[in-house]
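Researcher: Please translate sequence to structure tokens.
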Amino acid sequence: MMQPDSLLMIDGEGNLLEGHGEVEASARHIHVAAHRANPRHVAVFHTHMPYATSLTLLEGEQSKLAMAHQTACRFHGRIDYEPRFGGLAQDGAEGERLSERTASRQQTDVLFLAHHGVVVGGASIAVAFDDLYYLERACRQQVLATQGGGTLKLLSDEAVEGTAAQIRRDLNIMAERHFQALAEVMRASPDRVLTF
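Model: Translation complete:
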């Protein structure tokens, strides 16, 4: 149901610049703080996707995205984890607390929020969306693989680093192509609902 005129534009303080409606408080506090924490993130998405969020509900190493599949390798060295749930981000302090990790580790593009969801930032809307899309797929693979109680077979450090480098080499162009393809699908069938 969301259309372009449904979007609201706010400034760095969370003040409404364009559009009609009210900016939801927790979204405002999380996004404003995230953009301040890492200025190279042109786009920041915060979601409660089922598979990524399910990892935030687990203890210890089970809560981490394991380097057991090539899709997970895409995020090698780019993930951090906020281990404490502080309630809804109803004020700026909670948004700032959540973004401290990305402020101190500028290579972080993905932040798992304990008992909550994920925040994904990128140098463009296409890259942030592409990362969000593939993050959910990587988490789904991990959740499905562990449902039977087995142990994940992790990739070697060498394989992880090599695969991550291969993916990053083409990440921007492939993300742009992916995003443009989705836009074409939406233009061709404006009433179609995309599911991931």
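Researcher: Any highlights?
Model: The beta strands are 9-10, 16-18, 43-47, 79-82, 110-113, 117-122.
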